[in-house]
Amino acid sequence: MKVIKFYGSEGKLKVRPDTVEDLWTIQRILFANDVVRSESVRKFKSSESDKGELKDVVITLRVEKSEFDKTADRLRIMGKILDGRPLEYIKLNSYHTLNIAPGDVLDIMKAEWHDYIINVIRNAVSDTRKARLSLIVIDEEKALPADLLGYGVEFKNEIHSRLSKRMSQKDFTEQQKKYYQNVLDVALAMRADTIIVAGPGFAREDLKKFAEETGALKKSDKKILFEEASNTERSGIYELIKSEKVEKLLAKERIRIEFKLMEEFLNNLMTGKSKSGAEAVSEAIENYEAKVVMVNDNVLGDPEIQKVLARAEKNRVKIEVFNANDEVGEQLHAFKDIVSIG
Predict the structure, then answer these.
(1) What is the pTM of this model?
(2) Which of 60, 83, 223, 302 has the greatest CB tally within 10 Å of its CB?
């Protein structure tokens, strides 16, 4: 993510998303009635009988909704056209969809830029400068790869060993080598500079030995670490994220911070220091009983939530924005999407 310029007096941010994760970040902070401007294409008809021709235009529209499409690597922003150029190709007040891809420049205009919104952008800019971390949990039957991204965990397709006890020793050994090679190929193709391979049983150590014997680790500039995990399901990935063994590697990663905060919130429920729901959190803020407010990103556009967060900013309460689609965000949803810790 690159912030080209922030015009504070005009309430305008000019930004260039560089990755798919950046598109997701922008979608998180776009609300109804925000105004956006970007280059686009629009079909122009000189007459009713004309089939129309696609024209390059610059569109300014008032946001009604936005959708993050990971499969197409696009952020779709829908709304009514307020302005544009060339004007002869623009029909004011008609509906249009801006399809924003990595590398596109986008102007975002808000009536007010709250600190917690600006911090979401700052974190995204910081994330582009950090090496990503990837994880693989493996056993004798399968391996599950995952990337730890700015917006949480993205799981990849499972890799199956296709090993069987019915195989001859020779066929078993050959298939096992193919399995380990497949896992290594996936690992070395992952975007991270550091990859943690973990799992129960002997497969983890056998893969390490295979990688050393084939020289795969020496040929790559990636750093591969081997640790323990109890299983090869998604829970094994989350277990790895929360483990003390990788704490130093994950200390600065957003999802680990979220896990820590959620753990603190749950631990303080019995003492009454933790509050959940907009009304209770608002009351805690008013009574100076809130040090941190945690909120899911999918409710940032809710007027009631915005009032609570504005009050938190006024009282200088720290605001942490969670990814609603990740495990911690799902936990937070069970507590009405917004909580506080006293």
Answers:
(1) 0.76
(2) 60
